[in-house]
Design a protein that fits this description.
With 311 residues, the chain is an alpha+beta fold. 42% of the residues lie in helices and 21% in strands. The protein has 2 domains: 220 residues, Aminohydrolase, N-terminal nucleophile (Ntn) domain (Glutamine Phosphoribosylpyrophosphate, subunit 1, domain 1, 4-Layer Sandwich), CATH 3.60.20; 75 residues, Alpha Horseshoe (Serine Threonine Protein Phosphatase 5, Tetratricopeptide repeat), CATH 1.25.40. The chain has 11 helices and 10 strands. It has a 6-stranded antiparallel β-sheet with strand order 7-8-1-2-9-10, with helices on one face. A hairpin with a 3-residue loop joins strand 3 and strand 4. Helix 2 crosses helix 3, helix 4 packs antiparallel against helix 5 and helix 7 packs antiparallel against helix 8. The longest helix has 22 residues. The radius of gyration is 23 Å and the shape is elongated. The N terminus is likely disordered.
C-alpha cells in the first residue's frame, strides 16, 4: 500500500468546531466524519479550560495533552506548538483549540489531504480535511457567528448542519459527536461532573440528522433535570418557570408536560396543571397509571376531569 493510500484509509476525513461561551462558562466541540465512532477520538473538552479537536492523521492523545497545557497557562497557539514540537508527522495533523476565555488557534499540516484548512476567531476555531471545498469551513464559521442566543450545544450542531449543506466530507458521512462542559455544572446534578452534553452517533447514513434528533431529546431531559432541583416547598414556582420555558422552546413532550403539571399542582396553579397533565396523557396514555397515584398531583385528585383523564 502506498503512503497516500494508507493515509486515505486511516485519515479522519473530518470537519469540526471547537467553541467557547465565556458568558455562561461553557466549552465544547462538535465533529462529523467518514470515520467510525469519531466521537471516541476527535472531541475533547474540560470545563474552565477549553476544548480541542484532533483529526486528519490524528492522535487522540493530543486532546488531553493540549488541555493540560492550557491549564498550565499556555496560550492556545503556544499549546499547539508545544504539543507538536517533537512530532515528525505534524504536517499530516490537524488540530483546533479554544480556551475557556475565547482565545483560539488551529493547525492544518501542509500535507493534510485537500481540501484542508481552518478559520479562527473570537471563541471558535473551525477546521476540516478532505472536504468538498473551503465553503465547508466558512459556512461553519457563519453558522456559529449567526447563532448567538442559542445554547452552545445547539450552535455547535447548527455548525455541522451548515458544513454538510456546503458539501461536507468528500468521502461522505458516517459518524458525528458533540461534547460540552460548563464550569459549576458538577454542583447542579447528582452526577457531580461538569459535562452537560455528550452525544455520539457512531455509524449512521445521516449522522448529523441523527445527532440533531438526539440533541432534541437531551435538551428536554436537561430541562427536567434542572427543574428537579426545585422540587421542594418554597421553590416549586422556579421549577414551573424552567419547564414552561422548555415547553415554549422545544414543544410538546409528554414527560415534559407531565412534570410541568406536577410542579404547577404543587405551586397551586391547578387550572394549568389539569390542562398540562390531560395533554400529557393524551400523548402518552401509559403515564395514566402513575398519574392516578402521584402525590404531586394530589390537588387535582377530586376533580372529575382529572379522574376521567387517568381512568
Amino acid at each position: 500500500m502506498t503512503r497516500l493510500a494508507s493515509l486515505r484509509s486511516n485519515n479522519r476525513c473530518t470537519f469540526s468546531i471547537v467553541a467557547a461561551d465565556p458568558g455562561v462558562g461553557e466549552v465544547g466541540c462538535a465533529v462529523q466524519s467518514r470515520y467510525f465512532a469519531v466521537g471516541s477520538v476527535v472531541p475533547w473538552a474540560r470545563a474552565g479550560v477549553g476544548a480541542v479537536a484532533t483529526q486528519a492523521a490524528g492522535v487522540a492523545a493530543y486532546g488531553p495533552k493540549v488541555l493540560a497545557l492550557l491549564e498550565e497557562g499556555l496560550e492556545p497557539e503556544a499549546a499547539l506548538e508545544r504539543a507538536l514540537a517533537d512530532d515528525g508527522a505534524r504536517e499530516i495533523r490537524q488540530l483546533g483549540v479554544v480556551a475557556a476565555d475565547g482565545r483560539a488557534a488551529a493547525h492544518t499540516g501542509a500535507d493534510c489531504l485537500p481540501w484542508a484548512g481552518h478559520r479562527v476567531g473570537d471563541c471558535y476555531a473551525v477546521q476540516g480535511n478532505i472536504l468538498a471545498g473551503e465553503a465547508v469551513v466558512t459556512e461553519m464559521e457563519r453558522a456559529f457567528l449567526e447563532s448567538r442566543g442559542d445554547s452552545l450545544a445547539e450552535r455547535l450542531v447548527a455548525c455541522l448542519e451548515a458544513a454538510q449543506a456546503a458539501g461536507g466530507d468528500r468521502r461522505g458521512q458516517q459518524s458525528s459527536a458533540i461534547v460540552v462542559e460548563r464550569s459549576g455544572a458538577a454542583t447542579e446534578s447528582r452526577e457531580g461532573i461538569d459535562r452537560i452534553c455528550e452525544l455520539r452517533v457512531d455509524d449512521h447514513p445521516e449522522p448529523i440528522v441523527e445527532l440533531r434528533r438526539l440533541l432534541g431529546i437531551h435538551l428536554v431531559w436537561d430541562a427536567l433535570r434542572r427543574a428537579s432541583f426545585f422540587h421542594e416547598p418554597g421553590k416549586y414556582a422556579h421549577g414551573v418557570e424552567v419547564l414552561r420555558e422548555a415547553l415554549g422552546r422545544y414543544g410538546e413532550d409528554p414527560v415534559l408536560l407531565y412534570d410541568l403539571a406536577c410542579f404547577e399542582s404543587l405551586a397551586g396553579d391547578t387550572d394549568q396543571a389539569l390542562a398540562h397533565v390531560t395533554r400529557s396523557l393524551e400523548l402518552d396514555p401509559q403515564l395514566a397509571s402513575g398519574a392516578a397515584a402521584d402525590s404531586d398531583l394530589e390537588a387535582l385528585r377530586q376533580d372529575a376531569r382529572f379522574q376521567a383523564a387517568v381512568s
